[in-house]
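User: Can you predict the 3D structure for this chain?
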Amino acid sequence: MEKIKRIKSFLWYWRGVFIATPLVSAVIILCRWLGWLQPLELFAYDLLLKWRPGETRDERIVIVGIGEEDVDRIGTALISDKIYADLLKKLLKQQPVAIGLDIYRDVPIPPGTMELNQVFAENDNIIGIEKMIGDTRQYRVKPPPILKAKNQVGFNDMVLDSDNKVRRALIALPDRKAFSLGMYLALLYLEKQGITLTVTPKNHYWQLGNTVFKPLESNDGGYSGVDSGGYQIMLNWRGDVRHFETVSLFDVLDNRLPPDWGKDKIILIGFVGESFQDVLLTPYTNSPDKRMPGVEVHANIISQVISTALDNRPLIKSWTETEENLWIVFWTLIGGIITWSQRKSSQFQRGIILFLGLEIVLVFIVYQAFLLSWWLPLIPPLAGLILTASAITVYTARSAAKIRSTFGRYLSNEIVNTLLETPGGVKLGGERRTVTILTSDLRGFTAISEQLPPEEVVKILNFYLGHMANVITSYNGTIDEFMGDGILVLFGAPVSRKDDADRAVACAIAMQLALEEVNKQVTAWGYPPLKMGIGINTGEVVVGNIGSEKRTKYGVVGSEVNLTYRIESYTKGREILISEKTLKSLKSKVSIAETRQVSPKGVKQPITIYRITGIEGKYNLQLPEIEEKSISLPHTIPITYSLLDEKDVTTQVYEGEILQLIIKDIERGAVVRAEFLPHPLDNLKFTLRHLPQEDIYGKVTAVAAGENSFKVYFTYLPTTVEKILYSPVTEAC
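Assistant: Here is the predicted structure, written as structure tokens:
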């Protein structure tokens, strides 16, 4: 009886662990089986590879890389058979073990076709490629006929994971009768070393020397239900790109290599430039411009097979599913015990330290195992630790749910802190308050983004918005919303300060200055520089929690918000326009470059807006004054143009001609003589008569009625048009 009581007492004391551990473990194992954790597990695998010390260069493999500079010298990307014939002849003099030609040669490219075929026919150590996987009509590529007849062909197909990265090596097709290029070349090298391919009697696995190559199964490591067709192994990379000695095509053709450079080695020939599209994502790839050439992936496969057979370099191995599941349960149990035992508030700090220490120990064990070429699960046990701790925390502190809900509904720590300190802070509703509103927008970015792939647009936007967000935060602005390339910022909500208007103006100037740094990177990527307009207005609005109980947003409502957007719409690139109410609210002196009278839509009376270039006092910021250059043309350029009504182009088309070009830093503009004169600040759509397919957008900045002309700055100017109009001008300057 006493024993039963002790058991009951024990079970009750540790009830949280006994409930959370099996439930959390079951959920994680199920999610893993369904493949939901696979992206994270592959990400962790990539990290382990990057953390692992780099291996020494494998001198048995060298690469002749054909790059953009080689193609520029040849004058065409279609390299003739003559050049390849000369290249192979020179490489054969190096006495290599084998040469792998990772280039499709299914179609002759004269001149030199007969000469290249003769080289193929006379040499038994040249291995060509073919593409084997895919629909016969569309995706397969035949090998060179002569090499096919001599059975000197390997396939160059790669196995890609769901994120398009190469982590596995396909060394043979399902029938095992066709080798990959890397496997074929490795076997030729090993044959010279007296090692041939054998098959184990029990499992029919391939064996080279003392090493058995166990093929990858669909649920090995972090994979779940992956296609494991053919003979696949995990690719044990030697390192990142350029890890093998690589020379250029003309290093060989111009005899710039030592005579024994390729002696007794495997020589691979392939394209290495990004423009050739034979580049692949690998675990080391952090950005699209760091992809690995396909020829270097083949080099890694060759090196892995050779070094495994000759140098006892281990293959990457993994546990059975049962062993991995027990590993997950173990760490989930440990996490539950630590969290439950330290659940009291007095033990909270110590519990956090123990929990973090436990995570570090887990990562350390997995990393050390990876150094020994064992791929152990990291994300599932880590998830077990975190989820068990979370479940127990929720069980012991139910009020945390409300706090998490509150934190998830607001955009900044400042808002959250204010609302949490206010008894009615989490209720729906709002209050009237005078705030300064800043809104920014990129001029012409919509037209630019239509010309780019979505991934590139997102990359540019994230880079730009990240820099702007840092500037806004440093001036205590509250980012209310990102709207594409636009930003809405509040100064005075949720916390009101005496210098809200000053901080808004200073923030706007700092944003324009920061855009110069952003544009250095944007132009380095090969894109036109960004141009930003900023509008600022001050007035009474309603701020607070807007939405429903399920979805709430801290935001701002009122006509003053709409007016801010109208003011911003009058800007061109590098301009900051503020309303008269903002000017009166300023406590610091500002530099006013221009005063304008405008009649925004929805406003009964005209208003005055001011173009600001600097602020004095505490912030002391100034936009540099940039000289405007006007360049006369030897002859006018005929154009057509239409007015823009909001985002719509009006149907009326007018004719005109460009008299002068204007250059002001990154801004481009023109003086136009026309039959119809628009109003200042009107938005126009232009086309050059000899280039009607290229749309140009601009904003009118001045009108000279007596001369029947107007000045316009372009908000979007296609690269092709800019080169035609301005390249001769800038070159002359």
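The chain has a mean pLDDT of 86. DSSP finds 21 helices and 29 strands in the chain.
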